[in-house]
Amino acid sequence: MHSITWKGRLGPLELQASNHTFEPSTISQLVANVLEVEEGDVVIDVGCGTGILGIIAAKLGASRVYGIDASPDVVEVATANATAHGVADKMQFFQGDLFSPLPEDVVADVIIGDVSGIPDNLAAESGWFPSRVGGGPRGAELPMRMLREAGRRLKEGGRLLLPTGTLQDENAILDVARSVFASLKQLTDRMIPLAAPLAESKSLRELVDAGIVKLTARGSRFVWEARVWECEKPQPV
Ligand SMILES: C[S@@+](CC[C@H](N)C(=O)[O-])C[C@H]1O[C@@H](n2cnc3c(N)ncnc32)[C@H](O)[C@@H]1O
C-alpha cells in the first residue's frame, strides 16, 4: 500500500492505494464537483477505485453507500479509506463485475457510473490503469454495459452520473444512455491536454483515423474533451 493525496472536492484527503488501485484523476475531480447527494440518499459507486467518490457522497449526507470495483483488493483498500475518513459505518465495498456482487434488493437514489472508459490499447499504453485494461476496444463497451444494467439499480426519479469523453466512442455511449434514461443533462465540459506518451502513440493515431477518438489541435499540442452527464430515470406517471 502507498499513500496519495486527493486534492479535489472536500480535500485534501489522504488515501491508501495498492498496486492494483486506480489513482483518482481529473475526471474523478470533475465527477466529484457535480455530485449532489441529499440527506439519507442511497448511493452506488460502480468502479469505485480507492472509494473516493463514495466517501464524498457519504460525507455529503448519504445514508448508505455501496462501492464495487473489479480490482482484486478493492474491499481492503476502500474500506481502509472509508475508515480513515470516518464513514465506514455507512459504506460497504464489493469486488466483482459492475452491479453483480450487490444484494438483489439494492436500489439507489444516485449511481456514480465512473467505470473504465478508454480504449483497451490506450489503457495499456497510458499507464493510467494498473490492470492495463480499459473499457473495451472502443472504450465504450464497458460503460454501455454499465448503463444497460444501471436502470434496474436506480429508484424512480434517481440519477446516474456518467463521465464521457472524446478519448472513447462517446456517441455510442450517449446513444445507449438516451435509450435507457428519460433525460440526459450535460453538467460539465473540460478540455484536457493529451499527455505526451499517448500523443505519440500509434494506437491513438489508428483510433483517430477510425473516427473513434476525436482530438483538437491547440498550437503544437492536442486536447481531448471530457464531459459529465446526469442521466435521470423517469418518475412513474
Ligand atoms: C476511471 S477508474 C475510476 C475510479 C474511481 N471512481 C475514481 O474516481 O478514482 C475506473 C474503475 O473501474 C474499475 N473497473 C473496471 N472494470 C470494471 C468492472 N467490470 N466492474 C467494476 N469495476 C470495474 C477499475 O478497476 C477502475 O478502478
Q: What do these coordinates show?
A:
This protein is α/β, with parallel strands linked by helices and 237 residues long. The chain has one domain (27-191, 226-232): 3-Layer(aba) Sandwich (Rossmann fold). Helices cover 29% and strands 30% of the residues. The strands form two sheets. Strands 3, 4, 5, 6, 7, 8, 9 and 10 form an eight-stranded mixed β-sheet that branches. A two-stranded antiparallel sheet has the order 1-2. The radius of gyration is 17 Å and the shape is globular. 45% of the residues are buried. The model has no long low-confidence stretch (mean pLDDT 95). The site of S-adenosylmethionine (SAM) has 20 residues, from helix 2 and strand 4.
Query: How many domains is the backbone divided into?
Result: 1
Helix content: 25-40%
Distance between the termini: 50 Å
CATH topology: Rossmann fold
Q: How much is the radius of gyration in Å?
A: 17 Å
Q: What would CATH call the class?
A: Alpha Beta
User: Which ligands appear in the coordinates?
Assistant: S-adenosylmethionine
Oligomer: single chain
Task: Output the CATH homologous superfamily.
Answer: Vaccinia Virus protein VP39
Task: Give the topology string: H per helix, E per strand.
Answer: EEHEHEHEEHHEHEHHEE
CATH architecture: 3-Layer(aba) Sandwich
Count of alpha and pi helical runs: 8
Q: Would you identify the regions where 5 or more consecutive residues have pLDDT less than 50?
A: none
List how many beta strands DSSP finds: 10
State the secondary-structure class. Answer: alpha/beta
> What's the average pLDDT?
95
Main sheet properties:
8 strands, mixed
